[in-house]
Design goal:
alpha+beta; Multidrug efflux transporter AcrB TolC docking domain, DN and DC subdomains; 3-stranded antiparallel sheet; two-stranded antiparallel sheet; 5 helices; elongated
Amino acid sequence: MQYAPVVKLLLLKVLPAVGGLVVLVLLMAYMSGALSGVSKETIAQTLDFALDGLPATVLQVPGEVNPLWVNLEIDRSKRSSLADLDELYVRGEQGQMVQIGALGDFVAERDGQPILEDKTIYRKNLRRVVYVFADVAGRPPADAILDIQFDQVAEGDCPLRPARERLPRNRV
């Protein structure tokens, strides 16, 4: 059977060894898709709605400064596994309802290797940067920064010397 890659879905499973997110790809069979009259775009829109929801309208609440967006979502228990996604229905061109599982298969590996989401490379002034966030509970941020700087400096060469060593030596 000949397949066409249709949709990439992010499965929220972190692989610590590789450091990426596993991507699920729906491979749609050409013949079953053509016979049922379901397009790739229809499947992609249905899966996007199932996983992310659909902004329906804006609710204006008296006394509120910001508008309240109303988002339609499928219950999390009905969209949390591959079996649940396989059981979703899409409407064909003739109006018939077809299950997504009957149109193709979800695949997480290609050639025995997991399909991973591309990582974002952050840059500043054309150089790669890494952002590190930490919580320093119960300590002022300045103390944590100084501790990190002291940990990075070798034992003998301390950049911060006591005040008596910083004074000029030829003072009377």
